[in-house]
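COURSE: Structural Biology Practicum
ASSIGNMENT: Worksheet 4, Part C
STUDENT ID: 0417
INSTRUCTIONS: Below are two proteins. For each, the amino acid sequence is given first, followed by its structure token string. Answer the questions at the end about the second protein only.

PROTEIN I
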Amino acid sequence: MTDISIVVPVYNEDESLPELEAWVKKVMDEHKYSYEILLIDDGSTDKSWKVIEELGNKNSRVKGIKFRRNYGKSAALNIGFQHAEGNVVITMDADLQDSPDEVPGLYKMIMEEGFDLVSGWKKKRYDPITKTIPTKLFNWVTTKMSGIYLHDFNCGLKAYKLEVVKNIEVYGEMHRYIPVIAKWAGFKNIGEKVVIHQARKYGTTKFGIERFINGFLDLLSIFFVGKFGKRPMHFFGVLGTLSFLIGFFSTLYIIGEKLYYAWVIHLDSRDITDKPSFYLALTTVIIGVQMFLAGFIGELVTRNATERNSYNISKKINYND
């Protein structure tokens, strides 16, 4: 069995790949680990794939997978996870900003200290303030929403038990929130390790400001799907019922007020349809009905899904399958 699988998404990093492979090989040989390096070419337009082929011919532990076009880091990681075979799977970026010297420490935390997942924390960063300030904000929001106390969710340097990567799916731009996905999959022993952040040596960053907007939307998706994916009525039904009741009783109050003024104290009052509050109450009733129906339809879809009873089982006793 392979000790360590190094999964590296690659996008236009032909200059850094030879140095990265040599660095990883040096660390692995020093600690006598059996290993594999999975280089996932995410549709690079430079010579990255040619470099990967050359590295594979020189070192049999280097394996490469090439996408026909750019799908994104999450897709590259997901494919890498599918093909990884090591007891510990370690992800790092191809730009040399993640140090392979951190691998032994991460490996020890998984194998000896029993963590399911260990996330790197680049305590001292070499990024511009336009990147570090939004990152701190998103880390704070993610911590509050997920209950996972990490300083750097988006650090590319992470270590996982093999079981973890085989039981999670990473898509869209969910790679920023893999610890959250792992927690929802039942892997709650999540740790953190301070790691060295190297200054970028080659090329330029591949991510723009839009990643923070997309990242926040992805976080909402993970939170909703993880908590209500198998029971959408618990979300839409509760909100829909609450909205309907607020609108319904508001409407009764408005009608009752009209009847009171007309029949009890015999005073003229504005017609019900002339009151903005009537239309607000009516809108609230309609929204409530729509949300309840959305939850009902979601339940029908969920109950007919092929994976409705698919659950992660960690251990069995006296079973052959």
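PROTEIN II
(use this one for the questions)
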Amino acid sequence: MNPAGAAAHDPGARPGRDVALMSIGEVLAQLRTEFPDTTISKLRFLEAEGLVDPQRTASGYRKYSWNDVARLRFVLTAQRDQYLPLRVIREQLEALERGEDPIGHQRPSLVAVGSETEVAADTADTRVSRADLVERTGIAEQLLTELEQIGLVSSRPPGWYDGDAVVIVEAVVGLTRHGLEVRHLRAFRAGADRELGLFTQLLAPLVRQQDPAAKARAAETARELQALSQRLHAALVRAGLRDTLGR
């Protein structure tokens, strides 16, 4: 069976015992074309969370069927496109196993974050120079310096900026066009720092563990916390603006 045949399998089916079985490395190669951030640790983590159940050889090696790959693709797609937590994804898979339609089955209504989602996918790998950052975002040099002084943007290593810095600067440029000043932006930095402190406390027990599965769980938890925080913030602002606009 060729790779295209994987899509024909039902992700809700319990892992099939197909004749053609794949190693974890082969599965990773299949998924990375569509989900480049996937790692072996991530696949092991999803197994530990009960989202996939590969067979084991007598020596303990994992062997995946095409149904296993379909389930993994379902999980990774739901995470990437809908920001669903694993609990909800697991419930959707269970609904599929029962022959139910999971659409709307405890699926949260999410607000799309637009182009920021695309940028966030590779923020850690993006590197732009100061000149490129200024040209790309249209920010004034003086404003960029002020943002660095209040800690809203930082270069790492010195002289180079990552993808998050690009997102921050683009947002700031947009806000300043509406009349916001640098002094107003300090509140955003303070709010983010408070949130970061809370999330760091939640993640600390997992980060301290040396087990690779715990590291993967920490990264997954961080992703879910970030997505939930964005939803909460957006909903609070929308609710407040409705009152302001008299809606």
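ANSWER KEY EXCERPT:
Q1: Residues 28 and 40 are 7 Å apart (CA to CA).
Q2: Residues 212-245 form the longest helix (34 residues).
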